[in-house]
Amino acid sequence: MEQEILTCLKIISMIREGQKVSVRDGVLKLEYSSNGLWSAVKRWMFSDSRQVTMTYIQNIILNALDRKIQSRYLTEAMQGLNSLKVTYSKDVTVVARLTVLEEKIQEYLKDGEPSENIRRSSNSRQCNTDHK
Question: I want to staple 118 with a disulfide (CB 3.0 to 4.6 A). Which of 25, 72, 103, 114 is the partner?
């Protein structure tokens, strides 16, 4: 499970400004050409949405905090979270969710371990989640 979380955090760290992200078959995917009708059709076919993707990313981060993953992976992932904030800057809900995740990571990095609230809220979260 730890290897899976580390892989997910690495993928998050690779997200660049303007790049769209999706979840396919329980795996986080970076889209390199997300413009156009075909991209919209694919998102519709796979029932993909920002909500699904944000929930998936949140679960990855909370799992990493719960399992006390090495801080360098979380620091790298914050770069990807910042890129997503720029990409979705007009969606206040997404920006707020990403900001909360960043604050939890910063608290973890500062304190060396997650707070009790983070542990309690993430007990049942896994990197691969059922998004139905």
Answer: 114
